[in-house]
Structures are given as C-alpha cells and as structure tokens.
Specification:
444 residues, alpha+beta, seven-stranded mixed sheet, 14 helices, globular
C-alpha cells in the first residue's frame, strides 16, 4: 500500500497530508505531515494529546471536569479510504482520522462512536442513510464590522448572480472531492446560501459534512469573503440550520414508505421517529450544542422549536417531505440541528435514539398538520406536543439525566462531552449576541 500511495500522492504534487478530527467543542482541527515522512505515519498516524477532547470552544485550555489532563497520548490514524486531494489548497490532501489508544479505537473518539451506532443499527437489520443540509452566510469584513456579502432575499436570482463565482467554485470543489451536488439557492438572510449534496451511508455522510464545512470556508477566503455556519449571526436576520435528512434501509430497500401507515410511513419508521422525538430534549445538547444555537430555535421561524412531526410541516421538529410521485415519502428531516454540532456525535446520538424507539416500538402520536405555535396549551397537551428547550443549559440537564443516550455514548465520552458543554454554557450564557458572534464566527 505504501508505495502505491506514495506514487499517487507524488503524481498529484502533494506536499502535506492533513489528518482531521472534530473535537468535543465541535471545532474541526488537523495535524499535517510532509510527504517525505509518509512511511512514519501511514499506519500509526500522528500523535495528539488526549486532552484535545477536553478543550472548549472559547480557548485552548483543558476543562478539568472532563477527567483529562496533560498526561496521555492518543493517535490520529488516517482512514485512507477518506483521502481527498484539496482543490482549494494545491499541494495538500485531507484524510479523516480515527483516534486510537493502545491499538484500539479510543472511547472518546467521536467517529468511533458513530461507527458503533451504525453497527448497532445493522444488528437490528437496518442501514441508516443520511445527508446534512447546510445553510451558511457569505460575509465581508469592513471597518464597521462583519456585513453580509449582499442584501438579497430568498431564492433571489440577483443573489445567484452576485455570488455566482464563489458558489460555482464551491460546487466544483465539492464535486472534485466526490460529493455530488444536488440543489442550490440563496436563503432568506442577505448573503445566506444553501447547497445540498447527495445522501450516503451514515459514516460517509458525517465525513462529508466535515469536508463540506472545510470547502465552503476555504473557497470563500479565496474570494475575499468569510463563510460562517454559526446558527445566529444577526439578530434581525435568518438563522442558519443544518437539517439532518435520514432514511432507513433493509436488504438494499428503503423501508420508510408505507401507503397504509400514518403519514405514509412504515411501522419501523414511525417507531424510529418516535425514539428521536422522545429523546429530543436531550439530543439537542448534541444536535444544537452551542448557546448561540438557541437564538435560532424560536416558534414561527421554521426551526423545529416544537416536539412534533408531520408531513411537509416546517414548524415541526421532524418533517416528512413528500415526493411529487411514488414512492413517497422516502426520507424524513430533523430540523432541530445546526452545523455547530459535531456530525459524528449528532448523527450517532440520533441513531441511538431512533433505535431505542424501534426496540420499544414507541408511537410518535398523530402527525401534526398545523403550526404548533398557534395551538393552545390544551391543544398541544392533547396532541403530545411540547416546546423544546429554549436554552443550552436545559438541554445539558436533559442529556445528563438521559440513560439511553449516556449509555450509548459510554461513560468516558459522556463525561468529557458534558463537561465541555457545561464549561461553554457557563462562559457564554450571559453574553450579548455581538460578543458571542465575535467569539464563535470563525469557529464554525
């Protein structure tokens, strides 16, 4: 393998191999090694401190409550199947790393957690397919501060024309990295855009989410812009979500649709969705994991602020999109998520919640065909609809008490993750939006 890989990299004029991981603060990080020392890293990877999984988003210092500290080394081992030449960074390639300790996947490896949840789904006879649907802002730095790259509105053709060069290059670079682009349009906020890529099996979908964020940010820089996936940048403008699309397969067949089932869904699909809804208040500590996330999640803003599900209902946390022709539906969408989430932890936890629903044959209740925000408290109570956590501290508390998700994460990962979340909450819970954005804008 080594000789073939070396020749392949040399033919692509590669200098540096970047090995990436996404930490418990949901920041994408990397270490790189020069091609000349490939033989030293091809199998064992590159060392990082175990304390990297104890770092909050605010600064590079350890949160003591994680149980991690200055002693301990783990290894970031490349998964060479994820290797990709970086069209936006000539001479560099990217490979996703698994975090290894003592020759085995470390218990605190987020990618390892998702692999375990994928394996659990397979033990239930299910394969989970997924896609992350990203919204992001293109921004300019001015003497007065950060401003949107344009002042257009939803689906504006002017917005397309003003940003054509950067959007075209993003699309070209995604395709060059084998991420099939499906749709694009300017979103509701000025300078806000959405590009969707094709679904794939769960682990690859999470890897693609890392690559997508990296690509958009890097291409924007080439065009004199900044791109940010931060959920809420401007108080009076639309927030950015990252909706998680899922489908369930068995024996290469999509088992989601069932014309005779409620909402057009099979019993397995309804139970899986019921599990997600049941655990969603705790899941939000993983799918909407920053204090800034909760500035976006508000009633009547199409952000999934209510624990409910329904066909084509953009106010429900889980939307069942319809197709213009059979089969329909073929997938469902979790709206209560954003791109400040670590995709491995978020997707893995959603799978864990869904599998709990399948194992217990949970019932999601009746599908909701109205905006839940306009229902009375009595109507919501009758329909088993409730308002989801309105701030991160509540979601952290919910996760701290959720035995299903804590067990899925494992004690060491759960401890470190919760400690990082709590440290971030305490540091930022009283921040004004402007201060929060200044800190987080270029983290996500």
């Amino acid at each position: 393998m080594e000789n073939d890989l070396l020749e392949s990299l040399k033919s692509a004029s590669v200098r540096f191999i970047r090995v990436l991981w996404c930490d418990n603060a949901n920041v994408i990080r990397a270490k790189a090694f020069y091609i000349g020392v490939l033989s030293e890293h091809i199998e064992t990877g590159i060392g990082i401190s175990a304390a990297q999984q104890a770092i909050p988003v605010m600064y590079d210092a350890v949160v003591p409550e994680t149980g991690l500290g200055p002693v301990g080394e783990v290894w970031l081992v490349p998964d060479w199947s994820s290797l990709s030449v970086l069209p936006y960074a000539p001479g560099h390639v990217r490979v996703i790393g698994d975090i290894i300790k003592d020759g085995e996947t470390w218990s605190l490896c987020p990618r390892g957690f998702l692999k375990r949840m994928v394996a659990e789904a397979k033990n239930e006879g299910l394969e989970v397919m997924a896609a992350f649907e990203n919204e992001f802002y293109l921004l300019r730095r001015t003497p007065e501060g950060i401003v949107p790259a344009d002042e257009t509105v939803f689906a504006s053709t002017l917005g397309m024309d003003l940003n054509r060069a950067v959007i075209d290059e993003i699309a070209d670079d995604l395709i060059a990295q084998k991420m099939p682009v499906e749709r694009y349009y300017p979103e509701s906020g000025p300078g806000q855009h959405e590009i969707s890529i094709r679904y794939s099996e769960a682990l690859q979908a999470a890897d693609r989410q890392i690559a997508f964020r990296e690509t958009v940010r890097a291409v924007a820089i080439k065009h004199g812009l900044r791109a940010s996936f931060l959920p809420k940048i401007f108080a009076d403008k639309a927030g950015s979500g990252c909706h998680l699309h899922l489908s369930l397969w068995r024996d290469r067949q999509n088992i989601l649709p069932d014309a005779a089932g409620a909402g057009g869904l099979s019993q397995t699909a309804r139970a899986f969705i019921a599990g997600i809804l049941h655990h969603l208040p705790a899941l939000m500590a993983l799918t909407t994991p920053t204090s800034n996330s909760y500035r976006r999640i508000r009633p009547h803003f199409w952000s999934g602020a209510f624990r409910a599900w329904g066909p084509d209902n953009r106010e429900a946390a889980v939307r069942i999109p319809s197709n213009p022709a059979p089969p329909s539906p073929t997938h469902f969408e979790l709206k209560t998520s954003d791109a400040s989430a670590n995709p491995y932890l978020a997707l893995g936890a959603v799978i864990a919640a869904g599998l709990d629903g399948v194992r217990r044959n949970l019932d999601p209740g009746e599908p909701v065909a109205v905006d839940p925000g306009y229902l009375s408290e009595a109507e919501r109570s009758t329909g088993r609809i409730d308002r989801l956590p309105a701030f991160l501290g509540d979601a952290i508390g919910q996760l701290s008490r959720n035995e299903t998700l804590l067990s899925a994460l494992g004690s060491e990962l759960a401890r470190a993750y919760l400690a990082v979340r709590k440290a971030e909450w305490e540091a930022m819970k009283d921040m004004e939006l402007e201060e929060e954005v200044k800190l987080l804008l270029e983290r996500y």
